[in-house]
Structures
1.
Amino acid sequence: MPLRDAIDHYREHGWARLGVLADEATLSALRARADDIMLGRVAPEGFFFQHDAPSGRYEDLEFGAGWVGPSLGYRKIEKLERDPLFRAWLENPCFERVVRAVVGDDVAIYRATLFSKAAEGGGSALPWHQDGGSFWGLDRTPELQLWTALDDAPVGGGCVEVLDGSHKGGLATPLGGMIPRAVLEQARASERRLSLPARAGEVLLLHNLLWHASGRSTTGRPRRAFTVAYMSAATRCVRRRRAPRQFVRVFERQPAD
Ligand SMILES: O=C(O)CCC(=O)C(=O)O
């Protein structure tokens, strides 16, 4: 899809497909790197880890445990902008064109995150949520995430599911994050969910306020995806309990033409 059409679709629906952008060599390198980071073959310090619960239930996740030793069962790894391979991918020229068109010339990232559903056990289902709100501790809500499938993510097997157009309704709660059950029921989110199956290498644009979720991997293979939240570099951290976060700027070269 031409870039302009993809961006128009994203503005209207809260999501859009950019097509398969990562070739097999890139995917193999990123998958191998994800394994190396999970298995401690790359020093784990500097990354943020969250392991899946043994039950595979999101409700049973242990928050704050971080690195718990070598395992392919981590569900989330953040701060991947510190890794040269993931950093190179999130700054690729196609992403640069999309991000500059939506965000502007001066760009930072809020997070660069791997979401993984392990082959063994299938990971956990991620409930309906939005990526914003006071929980994010920012003076404005970022609006653009680029999500890259590192593995196939089929319908019923860990693909992203969305409520089309829901970004237009703003935040479901001031805190953001998980959407309360009553709000989901009122919106009939289960009936209206739209599955976005993706092939390995495919990239989706996702608006931060789009209601989205994902199921477990049912294929017996891992389902990994790398997602990056881009925002204006003018965005400020407003948290008070600790020193405000400083955000990593990206695309600091001349704008691509
Ligand atoms: O990859 C997934 O399973 C979902 C990603 C997601 O929810 C997010 O980027 O906020």
2.
Amino acid sequence: MNVVHVDLGSRSYPIHIEQNGLAKLGPILKKLFSTNRIQTNHAVIVSDENVAGIYLTQVADQLELVHDKVDSVIVPAGEKTKSVAQLESLWQKLVELESDRKSTVYALGGGVVGDLAGFLAASFARGISFVQIPTSLLAQVDSSVGGKVGINLPAAKNIVGAFWQPECVVIDPNVLLTLEEREYVSGLAEVVKYGVIMDTPFFNYLENSIANIKAKDPSTLSHIIKRCCELKAAIVKADEHETSGRRAILNYGHTYGHAIESVFGYGRFTHGEAISIGMNCAARLAIQLGLAEQELLTRQTALLTELGLPVECPADKHVELNKAMKRDKKVQNGVLMLVLPIKIGHVELVPSPGETPILESLHCE
Ligand SMILES: NC(=O)c1ccc[n+]([C@@H]2O[C@H](COP(=O)([O-])OP(=O)(O)OC[C@H]3O[C@@H](n4cnc5c(N)ncnc54)[C@H](O)[C@@H]3O)[C@@H](O)[C@H]2O)c1
């Protein structure tokens, strides 16, 4: 078993990464709760209909070893579930289930369930404990770590939320075998992101492991998930509440990516696909500005393409994309800040150079 520690003082927690980890959930939690003297007699598992159909029984059986009472609530799959209406219905459900401050919420699912169930735990009874059991690659390498939880409003994604750290994260890489291929490949965009923003050897490792990544080789997957969790844990430790700017580097490709998602509609590209295109636009801009060499873009494009990710921004709607980018939440005092790569393994926050270079960066040769 691999354990990564997220070091946040009194809010520290372990991330357990283990093949077949779901089958060992009970013993892992028993040990954690007794070490940390956490008293919790009641579990509420929140999962979506896809994930619950495959893993709910196994997880509930394991939680029976730890809690006197185990309940579950199943929500619809998909981004629309991160809504005020869904959160309100979950609050009501927790009351009906006689939940109290000794109840623990378990988020069993991808990033949607993790964000929603995490905010449920953060807000119910002024905050109760929660455990992340991420089942998509994106959730295992990114969203389950760091404590950002929340929901969407119709006008803005992730605009209502909190920083609420879990008691622990339990990751079973085997569950990725049931994840749809397109969702798996999308998660790989975030994996490549970590290499570009802060870890040259990891980027080299990814370049040399393409066949194993595509084949979902268990030891390759475990290594990748562990390294991404270590890198995210280091960033979160340095900037838990996104005040120093360090955490902003995780948004590499995201200013372009969010604009692509919103302008083309959330159905056309997955989040990871939009981020992949966004990272290439950001790298093109860095080269235009003389901040990076062409080799960076060549290597990044090759890796993303070989992993099955799109890298080209569709030729229409560039003006709309430019407008959407200006509405990005990384606008500071009226200036849009962009995360741009300087070399593989290093990025910097750079003020936007203005409309013309941004429009040029959206065009591929
Ligand atoms: N909190 C953060 O720091 C953070 C970071 C990045 C993204 N996010 C959020 O994460 C969300 C996206 O997460 P996602 O990509 O995991 O989407 P998702 O939760 O919608 O999961 C994708 C799909 O895969 C299915 N699925 C998940 N695991 C499965 C498995 N093992 N087997 C079969 N099907 C499975 C789900 O039911 C869903 O249909 C977005 O809402 C985004 O805002 C949060």
